[in-house]
Design brief:
four-stranded antiparallel beta sheet, alpha+beta
Length: 253
């Protein structure tokens, strides 16, 4: 079927030339990027594409303006067993960009998506979380602005202790239940649901099915069951401690 190149937004350069390029002569304070769903099948490639795009925009405008990313929300049916996930790998690509590219940030939305709507209606909380990022990092207000972000881990016998950044007000389970969403694996790389306990500003993860654990994942699914927050009611970003090859590795458009 022939494609109408005058109206097809997926044609390379179409959106840039039609909607972005005309704005380049005008000064901007920063950019908000709410996208990623269309790239979930090529999440590893997105690790390169997103920073390239940000740097290209900054080069064209001539200055390093702030760039704030909305991490993909939860979507599709709830995952009730540990799984590999293209959406989790895309969220990881977004997080890596926010961590490693200067003057960028990320709003986590893993708790305010919609299993049946790829465009969830709750944009108010998205805006509030982006505003916290901008107030803290663009306007230099001394306020907490992020949910818990994975920092590092330590194997302690048959358990793994996870350390976090942005534990403002302490780690907590928002719904008052036990921690959910953690999985753990041993040397066979098979993940099992894990028991997770908050100890101060760390979380200790274990499972009777894994005698010698080497990796932990949290909220690693398209639509995970997860409930870790900090004291200012911001959700923890999905993460993994391993760097094992994902299911989108090597896939490109």
């Amino acid at each position: 079927m022939p494609v109408n190149t005058a109206t097809e937004p997926n044609i390379p350069s179409f959106l840039f030339n039609a909607m972005l390029n005309p704005l380049i002569p005008y000064a901007i304070k920063g950019a908000i990027w709410y996208q990623g769903e269309g790239n979930t099948g090529q999440a590893y490639q997105y690790r390169e594409l997103l920073p390239l795009m940000i740097n290209d925009w900054r080069t064209r405008w001539g200055y390093e303006f702030p760039f704030y990313i909305v991490q993909l929300a939860n979507f599709t049916a709830l995952q009730t067993e540990p799984v590999e996930s293209t959406w989790a790998e895309l969220r990881e690509a977004q997080a890596l960009t926010a961590q490693h590219l200067n003057n960028t940030g990320m709003a986590v939305t893993i708790d305010i998506g919609d299993a049946f709507d790829i465009h969830p209606k709750n944009k108010l909380d998205v805006g509030k979380r982006l505003a916290l990022e901008a107030r803290a990092n663009t306007y230099n207000e001394k306020i907490p602005y992020s949910g818990p972000i994975y920092s590092d881990y330590k194997i302690e016998g048959n358990k793994i202790r996870i350390h976090f950044l942005h534990t403002d007000g302490g780690l907590k389970v928002k719904d008052g239940e036990k921690l959910k969403g953690f999985t753990i694996a041993g040397i066979n790389h098979k993940f099992y649901w894990a028991d997770a306990v908050i100890e101060g500003n760390t979380i200790v993860v274990s499972s009777p099915q894994v005698d010698f654990p080497i990796a932990v994942r949290y909220a690693w699914a398209d639509n995970p069951i997860c409930n870790l927050y900090n004291g200012i009611d911001l959700p923890a970003s999905p993460f993994r401690t391993d760097d094992w090859q994902g299911i989108t590795y090597g896939k490109k458009r």
